[in-house]
Amino acid sequence: MIWGLCAVLALNDIIAKLKRGCIMKKKLALILAAIIAFSAAAGCSGGKASTSSGTAPATSSTAASTDTGKSGDPVKFLVYACVSGGTSESGRQCTLAAETAQWYINEKLGGFPSLGGRPIQIEVLDSTSDAATATLPLERALSKGGYTSVIGNSNSSIALTMLPILEKYKVPTVTGAAANKAVSDQGCSFVFQPAATSSSFIPTQLDFLADYAKRIGKDVKDLKLGLLYSNDAWGTDQSNNTRKQVSERGLKLVSDEGYEGSSFTDATPLITKIQNAGVDVILPSAYPNDLKLIFTAMNTLNYHPLVVGGGAAMTWPSLYKDLGDKVNGLTSVDSWCWDQKGAKENAGWMEMNAHYEEKNKEFLAGQGGPTLFSIMLAYEAVENAKSDDPVKVRDELRKLNKSNSKWFGVINGDGDFDDTTGLNTGSRAIILQWQNGKPTSVYPQEYATGVLLNPDTMKPFEKK
């Protein structure tokens, strides 16, 4: 009755203003529609207004808030991943991680307790692997409204294209494994980048090389290094950071080779060039199909330098499928390894890990893990906000850190989300080594649970 009376009074006032010429006729229709919708919603929801669908308003988004969500309505998350194209392995991992998160949240946590037990619904949307067209499906999805959070894209090139759309529709995203710091440097207030970026990858790689050199009785400055990278946003960022930090440390970079992934069909010329340069350590940043070509060429040329990869496909199950037991001994930096200390010390996380392995018959890998902890961080933000309104969830994400979050500690480092950029300021990379067909974390000690083996013998190093 009260809301109906308010609507009538408001309508009488508008008609009076119309007569005085204060309101244009075009605006009248819009205002009347808003009053009718508001009154109807109030009558159906016990006096609480629902958020309309369509274009996002200036201070909220098109997704419904808890004030209007019915007890059985799911809270919708969107995982935006490269399901098709050249990096489809990444999308496959993200999809499996999304399935695991939905199982755990709904079956083990009872959905969202703060929202009366409403379940989560995680939809996977294919961005394709082409950054030039990746914005189109995201724009279509967000323009329809209804999403509380976006997870991904783990491909940095695509994550960069998402930022204006996130700002436009005011939906927060937690970027999974995206490793290019430029993603959180663009001024988008709705992006959160939890995983270690390439700026921390390189110091970890080079620190590891110094440790490795000591183990084999050499000075790290005597090792001849070679860069090999894909000419995309991630690979270029990796190579730029590596050149700078190699120079600052006075190390020997004797080979620097980029390639175009779209036309990369034979790695033999590149590997021959690297071999002729006398490279002792190759630092590759490449995707699955490229790595298959690279390692095939190395085996054909009987060339076996130390390999310290730049993450991504160097840490994925597909590498074992391509190389078999020849994968053992290879090392790589990454933001994530399934058995790193923060993960193994979190009982809830290891329950998800066990479920993932049992169902999918493979380990939780370098794109799946960050996707999973990104979902759990967004889940926690919804719980803290007691709302599925994206702007409120964005504001709660800003507050999360290792001290107050159950899930932040799964990630290496003691960080939080920077108030301005959304970057996890304390994220740290890890070195993993393939052992018995599966990666294990081996460096640095504060995050690792495994022991580095000599890649030539696959036995522990003898003390020098």
UniProtKB/TrEMBL annotation:
The keyword Signal is assigned to this record: yes
Keywords: Signal
Secretion signal, residue range per the UniProt entry: 1-42
Keyword Protein biosynthesis appears in the UniProt entry: no
Chain intervals for the UniProt region annotation (Disordered): 50-70
Pfam families: Peripla_BP_6
Residues of the Leucine-binding protein domain: 75-436
Gene3D superfamilies: 3.40.50.2300
PANTHER family: LEUCINE-SPECIFIC-BINDING PROTEIN, PERIPLASMIC BINDING PROTEIN OF ABC TRANSPORTER FOR NATURAL AMINO ACIDS
Family in the record: Belongs to the leucine-binding protein family.
Protein name: ABC transporter substrate-binding protein
